[in-house]
């Protein structure tokens, strides 16, 4: 993996493998094990002791599954674009949807070797991009669409700097004017108080935490979005008993944990008509 952030995709896949192998899986992603190669297993070994971070990670994935299933229940051919898809197997696992997965060439090659897009039960297009050198706008332009689209950026935003997030938002807004964005966001207070352990471990892969403003939801709203729904990942993880802190402690006593790591949906704000 040339891009160090891509190595973090092994970590998330390892978490899903561990979940699928457990006696009470939440997501039950049996593709994860197949996607992990030797490098992936070695990377994941560095994270196996981080129980709470891993618990929150699988709950995040499960929550997004629920949101996507709800959209697919009302529109079985709904378009879904996964930007920084990693080894996400939703196109293979969920019922319905027309899917686009975008990620670095090494990730896409591995996915194609294990589960070719042409054999996916749902229509699936995989797009390889060198994020540092190629333009997301050019890659996605052939798929531009003014209908409803859901864009998922899971476990991606905090690796990007603010200007990269702004460019991505502008690109998505131009090509998919009616898209909704699903993404997880971390506040600076969360990162300082709760994130240090996982961030230090991720740093051993060469990837850095970049985007954690004091109010990341407001920061995304300045990019032409309107917040629709935000859930506390830590609180949901506690309610599902996937982290060791009791839910009431997070709910009432630890606001920086409760509100600092959230999964949100944003709608595109209607653009102001050009002045005459
Ligand atoms: C932590 S992984 C998450 C992967 C997947 N979404 C998941 O949850 O399993 C971060 C992903 O972001 C991708 N990535 C790296 N640079 C990116 C960029 N500039 N824009 C979007 N995604 C990027 C990486 O290749 C990697 O697959």
Strand order of the largest sheet: 3-2-1-4-5-7-6
Let me know the average pLDDT. 96
Number of strands: 7
Number of helices: 14
Rg, Cα atoms, Å: 18 Å
Q: What is the H-and-E element order?
A: HHHHEHEHEHEHEHHHEHHHE
Determine the structural class based on helices, strands and strand pairing. Answer: alpha/beta
How many domain units?
1
Task: Quote the distance from N terminus to C terminus.
Answer: 50 Å
- Give the CATH level 1 class: Alpha Beta
- Report low-confidence residues grouped into runs of 5 or more: 272-276
Biggest pleated sheet:
7 strands, mixed
Give a written overview of the molecule.
The chain has 276 residues and is of the alpha/beta class. The chain has one domain (4-268): Rossmann fold (3-Layer(aba) Sandwich), CATH 3.40.50.150. 47% of the residues lie in helices and 16% in strands. The protein contains 14 helices and 7 strands. The chain has a 7-stranded mixed β-sheet with strand order 3-2-1-4-5-7-6. Strand 4 (149-153), helix 8 (162-175) and strand 5 form a beta-alpha-beta unit. Helix 1 (4-21) packs across helix 4 and helix 4 (51-74) packs across helix 12 (233-239). The longest helix is centred in the N-terminal third of the chain and has 24 residues, at 51-74. The relative contact order is 0.14. The model is unreliable at 272-276 (pLDDT under 50). The structure holds S-adenosylmethionine. S-adenosylmethionine is lined by residues 3, 5-6, 8-9, 12, 83-88, 103-104, 107, 131, 154-156, 160, 164.
């Amino acid at each position: 993996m040339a891009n160090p952030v891509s190595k973090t995709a092994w970590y998330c896949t390892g978490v899903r493998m561990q979940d699928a192998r457990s006696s009470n899986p939440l997501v039950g992603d049996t593709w994860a094990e197949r996607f992990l190669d030797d490098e992936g297993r070695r990377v994941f070994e560095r994270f196996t002791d981080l129980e709470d971070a891993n618990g929150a990670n699988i709950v995040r994935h499960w929550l997004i599954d629920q949101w996507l299933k709800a959209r697919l229940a009302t529109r079985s051919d709904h378009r879904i674009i996964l930007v920084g898809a990693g080894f996400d197997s939703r196109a293979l696992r969920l019922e319905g949807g027309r899917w686009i997965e975008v990620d670095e060439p090494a990730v896409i090659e591995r996915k194609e070797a294990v589960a070719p897009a042409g054999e996916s039960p749902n229509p699936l297009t995989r797009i390889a991009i060198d994020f540092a050198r190629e333009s997301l706008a050019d890659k996605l332009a052939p798929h531009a669409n003014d209908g409803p689209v859901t864009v998922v950026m899971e476990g991606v935003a905090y690796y990007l700097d603010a200007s990269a997030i702004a460019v991505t938002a502008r690109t998505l807004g131009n090509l998919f004017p009616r898209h909704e964005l699903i993404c997880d966001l971390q506040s600076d207070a969360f990162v300082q108080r709760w994130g240090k352990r996982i961030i230090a471990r991720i740093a051993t892969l060469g990837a850095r935490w970049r985007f954690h403003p004091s109010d990341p939801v407001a920061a995304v709203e300045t990019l032409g979005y309107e917040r629709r729904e935000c859930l506390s990942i830590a609180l949901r993880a506690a309610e599902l008993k996937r982290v060791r802190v009791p839910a009431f402690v997070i709910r009432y006593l630890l606001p920086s944990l409760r509100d600092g790591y959230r999964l949100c949906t944003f709608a595109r704000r209607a653009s102001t008509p050009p002045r005459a």
